[in-house]
Protein 1
Amino acid sequence: MPGPFSVPGTNAVVTGAAGGIGRAVAARLIADGAAHVVIADRDADRARAAAGALGPRASWEAFDVTDERAVAAVVDRIWDRVGPIDLWCSNAGVGAGAGLGDDADWDLSWRVHVMAHVYAARALFPRMAGRGGHFMVTASAAGLLTNLDTAPYTVTKHGAVALAEWLAIRHADDGIGVSCLCPQGVNTAMTAGDGASASTRLGGEYLEPEDVARAVAAALRDGRFLILPHPEAADYELRRAQDRDRWLKGMRKAWARLRGA
């Protein structure tokens, strides 16, 4: 059975790591003693720059996490070039679709927030089985609660949480650890345009990516599945589960306040 994950001496891959949470997590892994961290991103120039800034124990790969063949090829390439992958942080995300969005928003959100994790697990888990490893899914507190601004984001982040739970149950006997990162508001490029009426403001002050990376490091060290950089999210989820109708009523009131702002 998997337990705490020890970072020193391991090889890690972080997707969506050219900036934001991904870059902060990669930097933290290097600071905590990882032997090698691969900065993976769709933007080759930014991935190259991020890896260069992190020093000789970082390298980069540019690929689309929604392309299953590309993901499988990258896993093969890293395994051959760097060595066995001990930790994969499936972190890439998008903020697509206001309100109900359109079909393109739903398609992109589904492919990035759900299928990208599926493709990575398909490529990695057969290799990790028996030898061990760890897989971290970056979801969102929206996947435990809701984001009132965007249905595509909320629904697919719920899917990400459900997938992480399924993987944690099914693959524990293979020696593979799984964790699920669910932050509330974080100061990244994705939230740069959030105004006072953004629903993520309901969770209080935004954290910095480095705060999230510290929470990830602590959870890996402790062997915890659910990573909550905003601990209050656990209370919100508990209230939601205990009395769904009351929670929905409260969220409707919050939405009315946001529209007034």
Protein 2
Amino acid sequence: MTNPAERLVDLLDLERIEVNIFRGRSPQESLQRVFGGQVAGQALVAAGRTTDGDRPVHSLHAYFLRPGRPGVPIVYQVERMRDGRSFTTRRVTAVQQGRTIFNLTASFHKPEEGTFEHQLPPAREVPDPESLPTVTEEIREHLGELPDALERMARRQPFDIRYVDRLRWTPDEIKGAEPRSTVWMRAVGDLGDDPLVHTCALTYASDMTLLDAVRIPVEPLWGPRGFDMASLDHAMWFHRPFRTDEWFLYDQESPIATGGRGLARGRIYDRAGNLLVSVVQEGLFRPYNTGNKSTP
């Protein structure tokens, strides 16, 4: 497969090896650890595969316990905690080489009509995604051409990401910057019509840029990094149906960073301004020069 969106769907298509046990691939990448969004997305697939399929996911809460090793399969063990009249609850444990690296609890809710409805509007107006350059275009504009490693990464990237406030490259560009980042995103190809695939693909994407909001006031998003970082936990609430292969706006902010940890909140909207998903994550941040790796 050459289409990155097809590769993402394939990555989320777990092998069932027992009634409540699944195995997921972990591609061999030039990364220190498996991307957290991949593990979260695969774990949610495992949870969803043990339900009847008539109840969409309404929330998930997860902890990243150990870094996963690229290239090594991950086994997902599902515990069927509850099958109620309106709600279904699953707990998933991700195991790699005999060690638990991640756990997730997901709740599924039978659709029903609410007695009222409201939402806060988006915090600000933003330009349309078509008017903004892609990340790859911004890097080429700044560097002239992509280094080989970035070129290979760009070809494998399953999401088109466009920063509303453009990338920041120098310390001068981040002076006075608020801890906030807003991006347009969508899968680079069709993801099919399975709602669970779209939910799990969005779960994958939700971990890609969220901690940018923590970093923006202290270092440029691109270029040499002063901090290593790792996701500690992740929570999502799914409010409305959506397609991840259509443009969505990811508005992200960090209300606090202290004690080596930074908290980030995200709100995901469709182009009409409807709030689709709410996200909260805490990340661990450690200076590179201390010799400490960001491993929880």
Protein 3
Amino acid sequence: MNYRHAFHAGNFADLQKHAILLALLKALTADESPLAVIDTHAGAGAYDLRGDMAQKSKEAAAGIGRLLAEGDAPEPFAPLLKAVEELNVGNKDAPLYPGSPLLIARALRRSDRYAACELRDDDFDQLRKVLGPYAFAQALQADGYATAEARAGRGGRTFVLIDPPFERPDDYAQCVATVRAVRAVDPAAVLAIWTPLKDLETFDAFIRALENVTDDALVAELRLRPLRDPMKMNGSAMVLVGAPTDIEPQVAQITTFLAERLGDTGAAGRVWRA
């Protein structure tokens, strides 16, 4: 399946990823220490849910559309819902959805730094426009894995978001290699990795490989349906390395709520330490 961001903007996986991302950024910016953020696969930065790709999948209606309509999401979703609301001031239909770059830029301070990597020409052009108002943010048309390794530990605490399209056969291995490389130069670095959940063996193999390079991983599994069909995105996961322990209750609440509210019969949200 195509994991390009625009097809899935505002879907259940985005809700999990972005709610957890904002909780993590709040914790990492709680003191005065500067934060250096590297986003390995930034995408376009913001998405029109009326666009061709979003309309083809129609996943946003069952994700952000449902949360906005029902209006009873728990507190950890408040920062994300506020960001969506502010992006759509004057437009009650909320056709725009903020991607990770816009959410990150809005959450950071002037003393922080943000490098957003995107290789696709069309998405990169849009990304530069989205980040234009933020002087501390830089859009790079560069390989995100290599950039994370090269920039980690260069002043300020390092935070790396790894959110690849998983269209390359080595993306899982690259995620693990990036964790190893970043933590080697900055042991205090925090990393957040998003992955699809299609079949159990692929995900388990990834976690086993990750356990060989770190013993500090928090895994949030969101299963909307049983992992029986590897051709479908049956769920998603956020794997946090080095994250502050006090965000674990929020991660669990986000994941459990989405499983109960958006999942099929037998859906489950599980948070555990690898």
